[in-house]
């Protein structure tokens, strides 16, 4: 009987040792930093008066804060490493990270962090890692607590300290929250590749010590103007906090009562971001994604076959049964194909198609408009993968990026039928409209603006740094992808289409007119969708997200 109970006793002893080890590392038992006991806790912001907060932090003070403990509402690091694994390392590493989650729950925080870094970063090329700038800022911003952010913004020079690798948090803190100095864990590299190992905390922060505190004379002048903000549930063992006059703590109870920082309060608007995952990949969300993937893949294939092989009047009801949704609204009167008259007033036989101008949400925009109107429409695009071009059920044509050639090509296509163009030149996920190229304003007397929006719950159907040929697949893998198509009232275009000769002899008045028309169409679409108009371009997006100018190779 004693022999049978031995495995149970060993297991109980194992868990007891782990529990005791975690208790010994508790921040309540180990506080190596000397703090002012009368101000030992930073209470939630609403409980402090404006005067009290100003007394705690002011513009002439240097503020050192722990990012996970005093800025983010959630203290879990797993979702952000899962984003790195899924977006930068591949789906198999993401699955491995999820499978190792139970083990990480049993070990201490430092060992758990080391496991996540090894799984996510080992073998990744340093120069090609862009998830820290293109993917993670969106999810970090959505997790910022309003009250913690409000206190943080009252400081003068702000120093962010994090247990995350610096490459994961630096862009978020510096570019979006305007933090002056970021101190994170440095990763070891070998010939330009990450080894999945971290340097010591003291060595990582020593690289920026002089940037924070300056020379010895600067530190003497600074005096006691350094304030620290940390968390009760996290040990303040970073040596930078030993230079603080006072350290204020945030409890988990306070953080639970915080509100999330709303989009309109972002110091810098989030317009561009990349990555496939829509949901924050917590352990449960990650499990749901991996359980859905096999079924979603086959569902997307079936949806794609029906959409390509069957007419919309037949395939539409089938696609609706499979979870696809399309909502169409249009004005009472719609323009039809127009005819041109010669100088004698005699009607020419050749008709001119309708020019549809829409904002760009996914590569499927032209397909959804064509399906909504139950008529084939030629789509002209700035970039399209070769695979998407082959599988497209409607005719697609590429811009040559030569203004004269593109104008003549659009003129020819309009003489053959209806045409759809997305003058932004690239997709934008957030509620913003990029600058409209004015070329379309020269092509037709009647322009139909089309306001489009795509709604997804699991995967984004666009990418800047990944394979664009997989964009439609990821969109169709969503459980219930939803599209809204709204046709607006017709807008008058230029007085006449431009030929090659007129393109070379435009007067200043006509040049100003086409830009005015383009801006007007952008404004109308912005009002219809509730989006904000910007002057950013396709080039701006790709330089931020992919480090190139957005020239897509055939894939």
From TrEMBL:
Q: What is its main location?
A: membrane
Q: Which GO terms describe its cellular component?
A: membrane
Q: What is this protein called?
A: Phospholipid/glycerol acyltransferase domain-containing protein
* UniProt KW Transferase keyword: yes
Positions of the Phospholipid/glycerol acyltransferase domain: 354-455
The lineage's top-level taxon is Eukaryota
- Give any GO molecular function from the UniProt entry: glycerol-3-phosphate 2-O-acyltransferase activity
- Family affiliation: Belongs to the GPAT/DAPAT family.
Q: Which species does the entry assign this protein to?
A: Papaver somniferum (Opium poppy)
């Amino acid at each position: 009987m004693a022999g049978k109970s031995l495995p149970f006793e060993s297991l109980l002893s194992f868990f007891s040792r782990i529990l005791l080890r975690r208790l010994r590392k508790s921040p309540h038992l180990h506080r190596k930093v000397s703090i002012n006991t009368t101000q030992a806790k930073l209470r939630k912001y609403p409980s402090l008066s404006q005067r009290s907060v100003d007394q705690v932090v002011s513009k002439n003070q240097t503020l050192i804060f722990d990012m996970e403990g005093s800025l983010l509402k959630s203290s879990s690091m797993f979702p952000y490493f899962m984003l790195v694994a899924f977006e930068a390392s591949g789906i198999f590493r993401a699955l491995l990270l999820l499978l190792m989650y139970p083990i990480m729950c049993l070990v201490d925080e430092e060992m758990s962090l080391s496991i996540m870094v090894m799984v996510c970063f080992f073998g990744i090329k340093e120069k090609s890692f862009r998830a820290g700038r293109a993917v993670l800022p969106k999810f970090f911003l959505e997790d910022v607590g309003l009250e913690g952010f409000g206190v943080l913004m009252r400081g003068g020079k702000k120093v962010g300290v994090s247990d995350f690798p610096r490459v994961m948090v630096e862009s978020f803190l510096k570019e979006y929250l305007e933090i002056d100095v970021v101190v994170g864990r440095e990763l070891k590299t070998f010939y330009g590749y990450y080894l999945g190992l971290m340097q010591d905390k003291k060595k990582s922060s020593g690289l920026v010590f002089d940037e924070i505190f300056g020379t010895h004379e600067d530190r003497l002048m600074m005096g006691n103007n350094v304030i620290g903000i940390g968390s009760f549930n996290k040990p303040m063992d970073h040596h930078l906090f030993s230079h603080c006059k006072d350290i204020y703590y945030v409890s988990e109870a306070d953080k639970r009562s915080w509100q999330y920082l709303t989009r309109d309060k972002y110091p810098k608007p989030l317009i561009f971001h990349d990555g496939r995952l829509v949901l924050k990949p917590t352990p449960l969300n990650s499990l749901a994604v991996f359980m859905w993937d096999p079924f979603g893949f086959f569902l997307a294939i079936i949806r794609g076959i029906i959409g390509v092989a069957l007419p919309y009047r037949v395939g539409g009801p089938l696609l609706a049964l499979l979870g696809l949704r399309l909502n169409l609204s249009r004005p009472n009167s719609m323009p039809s194909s127009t005819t041109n008259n010669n100088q004698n007033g005699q009607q020419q036989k050749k008709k001119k198609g309708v020019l549809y101008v829409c904002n760009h949400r996914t590569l499927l925009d032209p397909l959804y408009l064509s399906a909504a109107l139950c008529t084939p429409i030629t789509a002209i695009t700035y970039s399209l993968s070769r695979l998407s071009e082959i599988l497209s059920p409607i005719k697609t044509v590429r811009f040559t990026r030569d203004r004269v050639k593109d104008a003549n090509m659009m003129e020819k296509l309009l003489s053959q039928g209806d045409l759809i163009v997305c003058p932004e030149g690239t997709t934008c996920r957030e509620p913003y409209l990029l600058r409209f190229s004015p070329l379309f304003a020269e092509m037709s007397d009647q322009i139909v603006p089309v306001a489009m929006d795509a709604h997804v719950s699991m995967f984004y159907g666009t990418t800047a740094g990944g394979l664009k040929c997989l964009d439609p697949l990821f969109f169709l893998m969503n459980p219930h992808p939803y599209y809204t198509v709204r046709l607006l009232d017709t807008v008058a275009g230029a007085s006449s289409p431009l030929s090659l000769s007129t393109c070379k002899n435009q007067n200043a008045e006509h040049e100003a007119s086409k830009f005015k028309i383009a801006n007007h169409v952008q404004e109308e679409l912005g009002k219809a969708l509730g989006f904000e108009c910007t002057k950013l371009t396709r080039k701006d997006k790709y330089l931020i997200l992919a480090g190139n100018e957005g020239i897509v190779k055939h894939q």
